[in-house]
Design brief:
By secondary structure, this protein is of the alpha/beta class. The protein contains 21 helices and 17 strands. It is 44% helix and 16% strand.
């Protein structure tokens, strides 16, 4: 497929492309003037650092835009790769294609190129520019193009919003947890080889259906049958029911997550507490100081990834999908090599007006706020109605975020060839083909790490990192700075310096 058939020389000598229809991309008289007029028409809208231009054409407009904003990134779209190859015969276009800040993309690659190159923390808002002749020629594709742009920018925006909210908390937690790891952790991972072979892994989330499904863990033979991996929120419910999980996992960086660990830890001295390096460091410190078994993992934050990489990937990397601890627990289970897996309490919805299972710290918290005039149900309703609810059935409601969690988990399972069914609110997983018993997570005595974790080794490398390497590490914190009213008007280089100072101060 293609939309161009050749080139034509305009009256001013410019070489302009001709569509299959016979119309030209730019004016046959003075395409230079048309490009200048388009540039003038957007001049009053401010200067941007990232542009999406619909149509490459002769490259005249893109050249002028690049000259006016030499540091801006320009992502220019054509429908098909063949059209880009054709346009590269034009000297202007060929020269532009060699610039690092100019990217040519076909519609098939638009989502990928936009996701990989547009960093809101670095560039701020972007500007979409339509070259009128190109848009008119491809009118039947504009709806599809706008749909891809809207979807992709929505995903990027959601990710940026999370970074803008948690960027500072993550930085603080990662650095503090890294120092805890250096001081306390000497590879606390336990060897569960026999359990992996002989037991069914039970992942326990804290959805309201856990109130019923927890009964399977209360049976007399449950200890022999099941290996329990609990999310932090669900752990309190389990302990309250005299069920001790083998592993308790946490990814939440917020201070409120400390509440999962300050009460009801009786009997968990042999449990393994696993914290994302981004997770609440006060909770990890509290457990370590009390002598509990605690260790860490990485889930993709560039700072924690960099620290781990310098330490020869001392900690495993776990997937968290759209950001829910249930998926992290699932990835842990699969990487460990369990062949039989079920999931309890993964509702991704509110059932009968309940947000969580009984026994979580929220029960205690909200019961304390309850009164004769303001009952617990009213307090929980305030939590549930903080975002728009979607009705699944008369007694089940969900939200856009919860649906994203569910979709993320189910797509993850499909991507690794695991089928699933859900019966009586319990997910049952089945491998398609032969499962890979990778055993990446639980180390036995003969393959434990031969080196200690050192945060000092990270600082040694970080201080000598080039600007591009350090920039990637700093971006989530820069997102927080850019979203803060105190810093939002600072230049990107000033934001970089502040973010750099935030990390360096830990090495003073």
């Amino acid at each position: 497929m293609k939309i161009y058939k050749g080139f034509e020389e305009a009256r001013n000598g410019s070489r302009i492309p001709v569509f299959l229809s016979g119309r030209t991309m730019e004016s046959r008289y003075n395409p230079q003037r048309d490009a200048e007029n388009l540039l003038c028409s957007i001049a009053n809208e401010g200067t941007y650092n990232f542009y999406v231009v619909l149509g490459i054409g002769s490259g005249l407009f893109i050249k002028l835009l690049s000259e006016k904003n030499p540091h801006a990134v320009i992502l220019a779209l054509e429908l098909y790769d063949k059209d880009i190859d054709f346009l590269l015969q034009n000297d202007y276009v060929k020269t532009l294609s060699k610039k690092d800040n100019i990217i040519f993309t076909s519609l098939n690659n638009l989502e990928t190129n936009l996701t990989q190159n547009y960093l809101p923390a670095k560039y701020g808002n972007l500007k979409i520019i339509e070259q009128r002749a190109w848009v008119n020629e491809n009118a039947e594709h504009i709806e599809s193009i706008n749909s891809i742009l809207k979807k992709t920018l929505g995903i990027i925006s959601a990710d940026y919003s999370v970074q803008a909210h948690f960027g500072k908390i993550w930085n603080s937690n990662i650095m503090n947890n890294a120092f805890l790891a250096e001081k306390y952790c000497r590879q606390n991972y336990l060897s569960f080889t026999k359990d992996i072979i002989n037991k069914t892994a039970v992942i326990v989330a804290a959805g309201p259906s856990l109130d019923k499904s927890i009964s399977i863990l209360k049976k007399q033979d449950s200890q022999e049958k099941y290996f329990i991996i609990s999310t932090d929120t669900a752990s309190q419910t389990l302990i309250q029911n005299q069920i001790i999980p083998q592993v308790i996992i946490s990814i939440d960086g917020q201070s409120v997550s400390y509440n999962h660990f300050i009460k009801k830890t009786e009997g968990c001295k042999e449990s393994l507490y696993l914290f994302d390096l981004c997770a609440n460091s006060s909770a990890a410190k509290n457990l370590l100081q009390k002598g509990y078994k605690v260790d860490f993992f990485c889930s993709g934050h560039p700072l924690s990834t960099a620290i781990n990489s310098v330490n020869h990937n001392y900690f495993p990397t776990l997937f968290s999908g759209a950001g829910t601890v249930t998926i992290t627990a699932l990835d842990l289970t699969i990487q460990s090599g369990f062949k039989d897996i079920i999931i309890l309490g993964a509702d991704f919805s509110y059932i009968n007006g309940k947000a969580y299972a009984a026994g979580t710290y929220l029960d205690t918290l909200y019961n304390q706020k309850a009164s004769k005039l303001k009952q617990t149900e009213e307090v929980f309703s305030k939590l549930m109605y903080r975002t728009e609810l979607k009705e699944i059935s008369s007694n089940i409601k969900t939200t856009q975020i919860l649906e994203a969690y569910k979709t993320s988990m189910e797509k993850y399972l499909e991507s690794i060839n695991i089928s699933f069914s859900k019966e009586n609110d319990i997910y049952k997983l089945s491998y398609i083909g032969i499962p890979k018993n990778q055993g990446l997570f639980y180390y036995s005595a003969d393959n434990s790490k031969t080196h200690d974790f050192s945060i000092k080794s990270f600082f040694s490398k970080f201080n000598n990192a080039n600007s591009q390497e350090s920039e990637i590490i700093l971006l989530p914190y820069i997102a927080w700075l850019r979203n803060n009213s105190k810093y939002k008007n600072l230049s990107y280089s000033e934001l970089q310096k502040l973010a750099l100072g935030n990390i360096v101060r830990y090495n003073i």
